[in-house]
Fold these 3 entries.
Entry 1:
Amino acid sequence: MPDPVAVVPFREALRAWAYVALNSFGGPAGQIAVMHREIVERRGWISEKRFLHALNYCMLLPGPEAQQLATYIGWLMHGVRGGLAAGILFVLPGAVVLMVLSVVYAGFGDVSLVQGLFYGIKPAVIAVVFAAVVRLSRRALLTRVHVAIAIAAFVAIFFFDMPFPVIIIGASLVGLTTQRRANPAADKSAEADTDSSAVARPSARSSIGAALIGVVAWLAPTIVLLVLLGPSSIFSQLALFFSFAAVITFGGAYAILAFIAQQAVDVYGWVTARQMVDGLGLAESTPGPLIMVVQFVAFLAAFAAAPTGLDPFVAGALAGLLVTWVTFVPSFTFIFAGAPYAEYIRSRPAPAAALSGISAAVVGVIANLALWFSLQTLFAITGELRNGPLRLHTVELGSIDLFALGLAVASYIALALLKWPLLATLAASAAAGLVYFLLFSP
């Protein structure tokens, strides 16, 4: 069966991406779940297979996979302008909200009321994520081999903190080697998408051009700062470090945040451990990519070390915008330069077979993200910020938040059984959580 992309008016797509961005809470797991619900299930603009294919590619890239996924789907529907619109809108609400919260935090040192506002949203996000895991499992895990791959991927990353690229390579090899021996359902899942046979071979010239434009846009601010201010400037240091971090960390937001937290606190001393924890709490509670916490770190670093003659709040705002730029521009570059090739290989049987294995592994990885976020929301966690929660965290089982658990269950019932709209579910959970937080929070 053909697997086309729906023809959607650009204005309608803009409204949809704005809606997705405003409801994208809970880190990459929640954001991917919201995107799947709104773009695939509710609107039917792309198929399940196209969504998983795009997600497979984005999971292989360094940086924020959810924002890259939005950019990819936007590009798929409306070309470069669609990718830019979807990617920018995905980041914009979180950037604005976190900038405001950074100003409040730097000025007053207390954002407890804001945290109370978002206390009730997190349990609803748990429901959204687990509903998405269930739906993706039904569509991606078509054979026993796929189920085994998903379980193995979950165990590998959750219990052993295995690097994500290793998991993907293993899943792709299993997909390839089992293609011919699989049952008819597996053969069907591994075959190439029929509509992709019409995809022309990507233009190397266009991809190289997109890569060059992206690299220049990404590095130009850093080079200018180094020339004008020198390497000792706080702005130069922030630009250099976060440019480096944007392209060397694989495995999603949780992997990169472990590296950033260690460097920002222990190596550079830009923020204290307490400030880093507060920033992560704010980033998880507000819409947009979890990696947006880098803006908070940059704001506080420049606020504390503002150059003579520059208002600390202005310095913080400029640093936050600078770090946001160098963090997200590479994501657009990876999509515009590489997505045409990712689409092209959909017409090739061998890559399609490998990708069927990767799709199964991605279900396991998303289940890991879902459980990680649930543990962070429902229990008190001690220890370092790392990707593998059971290996490197201490989960205090006796600290379970029964009210939050009840909200999560109620939200799942509202979404999955009663078919409430997502926004209504989030609003109801937020209102209940706020009342409880104000009445009973110590």
Entry 2:
Amino acid sequence: MAPRSYATAVQSAGALALLLPPDESMVSDPSPLLERLDGLILAGGSDIDPATYGAERHPETKTTWPGRDEFEIAVARGALDRGLPVLGICRGMQLLNIALGGTLVQHLPDLVGHSDHMHTPGAFGDHEVRLEPGSLAARAAGGELISVKSHHHQGVDKLGEGLVATGWSVGDETIEAIELPGRSDYALGVVWHPEEGGHDAVIGSLVTAARSKAPV
């Protein structure tokens, strides 16, 4: 179940929000779902099963939902193949990376030496992110240095095929944004939560991209 804030952000940007629950019957061919969409958001949520990217489970990797992982990877790949605008948020950014063959750091504190990215269970933390000038991430967010809300303990490790990092945490250089230049006009992952920011323009940028792709 996705928090109401995702749908509210999409609706506030002038679009219709549809929720796609995991459906095992759609994994082999998600086209019946995707043909009804103009854009796709891969939402946040629980940790991704490390088996999806060939890793052993870290002690801090908690509750996983393999059925959701399998469904969303299939939907993400299908959306990219169809040229749909795709936005991955937090877990969704991580899943976009895995869908293209990438891997994850299962517990960021092991790498960066602190828990600032998820310092308070159940609450979003504020920090600054530096975005690559001219990148899709910077255009979507409306700036190259932005304040964001985040809550995660995992992150991108090896980048998936074709993906490039275009955003980093100020201070520890954790990857905060990834995108897919050359293959897609709009394929973006951000590890922060634009649906919680109120002023964050990222979801609106997805809606704009989806509207430009929609049939007349």
Entry 3:
Amino acid sequence: MLEKAFVTIAAAGALLAILAPTASAGQQYVALGDSYSSGTGTGEYYHEPCQRSKHSYARIVARERPGTDVILAACSGAETADVLRDQVGSLSRETRWVSITIGGNDAGFSRVVAECAKPGWAGHCGRRVTEARQFIRRTLPERLRSVYEVIERRAPDATVIVLSYPRLLKDTDCDAGTFFSEHEMERLNDTAELLRDKTSRYARAAGQRFRFRDAIPGFAGHAVCSGNEWLNGLERSVGESFHPNRAGHRSGYVPLVRSVMD
């Protein structure tokens, strides 16, 4: 009788093991892209060459969302070619989520902002903005398409969250070290919107698993020189200038990513 009882218990245990939900190994989340995804601007980095930070939106999402295992592959200064060469190797069929900010460095946007921050007599803001806008219209779309195609091929079961960049500037320049005119700030912000529009168009064209999220509305009221900045102005560490600070990642980008994941 005991022997039969043990057999029955063992069989029941085996059946429960089959029927019960298995412990999740975690959903793999890979964050690709440039400094806006690596965490540049947050002031603390565990991987200095790429300025990857525990304060980046990807790391915050992984900490706050149970069962999410993040690979932060994004790197400060990355262009589309860098994503294809150095970052997409982190993707696989096991990848459940991908996020990316990319295109700003291809268009030289940080160099354009730096040029416009100079006094009018010392810079060439208008010409640089025009060149960037032409690049965004004519050259960037094919680069974005190539990145999205490779992501889809390497992570065929992933949902891909494509994020835009915020408008950087308010209508006044409060920083003693910069010399933005009202017209220059307007053109820079308009260029961020142009970049947003192109990114949105080609992300949506990439397929149903691509979800575009616009950072411009989320950062509204929190530009440089606003009362509650989510973006750095001119910093002592110049490379951190005009990037999201910790509040920008947590309150600006995290809700955009989680609006898809949750």
